[in-house]
């Protein structure tokens, strides 16, 4: 039976400050480091042994992946990093305080930006100094693929090819897989795996630092889902 473990990165510095983060490469907060360490201990206690791990190209997820593997005595396990597992890009909202943004634009508008499946945030222009187009880790991408902002629908559209090309084949080969990524990239993949509706996905929240386990059938449908 294929086994898939999702882990949202531990609490980040901007999570702690209540700021929109997205593709900004912020670090883990001390609490986030401890969350990831504890997640690794739980994986070890559960006896889960990975064959391969996938993560994004953002250090809060990479460090979480490393800590999970280190604290489950599996730091040797091969890792694959991909921008397709990055957090949702929050456009011009990145770096803004969520409470202050709500005070400026209204709670309802900010709630729509944050939770709507298909509403885009205010977009960041490619010419903006903060654009990911200026970051060399994305230099290999067609500039049309560098987002100026994403909703969950777009996040799923860019994560899905990585699922189909990398993660799903590993699972179909009966490998045990770790995906250490972000709240929204994991929610997008969970929507696909679980067949969650556009409306119901808005209610799914994956907590930081808590490994989420899927026991899968041979056709990759979900047999069992639980948190460690």
Description:
The model has no long low-confidence stretch (mean pLDDT 94). The chain contains 7 helices and 6 strands. It is α/β, with parallel strands linked by helices. A hairpin with a 5-residue loop joins strand 5 and strand 6. The chain is globular. The chain has a 6-stranded mixed β-sheet. Helix 4 crosses helix 5 (107-115). It has helices at 13-16, 30-45, 59-70, 98-105, 107-115, 152-172, 183-194; strands at 3-8, 52-55, 79-81, 176-181, 212-216, 222-227.
Quaternary organization: single chain
Count the beta strands.
Answer: 6
Low-confidence stretches: none
Query: Measured on Cα atoms, how large is the radius of gyration?
Result: 17 Å
Q: Look at the helices and sheets and give the structural class.
A: alpha/beta
What share of the residues does DSSP label as strand, in percent? 5-15%
Largest sheet: 6 strands, mixed
| N-C termini distance | 18 Å
Helix share, percent: 25-40%
Shape: globular
What count of helical segments does DSSP give?
A: 7
Widest sheet: strand ordering: 3-2-4-1-5-6
| Nearest-integer average pLDDT | 94
Q: What are the secondary-structure elements, in order, as H or E?
A: EHHEHEHHHEHEE
């Amino acid at each position: 039976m294929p086994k898939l473990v999702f882990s949202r990165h531990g609490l980040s510095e901007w999570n702690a400050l209540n700021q929109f983060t997205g593709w900004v490469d912020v670090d883990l907060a001390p609490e986030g480091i401890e969350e990831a360490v504890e997640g690794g201990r739980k994986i070890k206690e559960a006896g889960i042994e990975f064959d391969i791990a996938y993560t994004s190209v953002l250090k809060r997820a990479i460090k979480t992946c490393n800590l999970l593997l280190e604290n489950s005595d599996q730091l040797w396990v091969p890792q694959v990093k991909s921008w397709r597992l990055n957090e949702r890009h929050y456009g011009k909202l990145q770096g803004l305080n969520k409470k202050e943004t709500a005070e400026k634009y209204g709670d309802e508008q900010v709630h729509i930006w944050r939770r709507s499946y298909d509403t885009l945030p205010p977009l960041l222009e490619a010419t903006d100094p903060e654009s990911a187009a200026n970051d060399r880790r994305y230099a290999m991408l067609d500039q049309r693929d560098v987002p100026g902002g994403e909703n969950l629908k777009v996040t799923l559209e860019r994560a899905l090819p990585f699922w189909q090309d990398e993660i799903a084949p590993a699972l179909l080969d009966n490998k045990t897989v770790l995906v250490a990524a972000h709240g929204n990239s994991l929610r997008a993949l969970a929507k696909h795996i679980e067949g969650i509706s556009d409306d119901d996905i808005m209610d799914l929240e994956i907590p930081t630092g808590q490994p989420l386990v899927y026991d899968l059938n041979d056709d990759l449908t979900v047999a069992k889902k639980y948190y460690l």
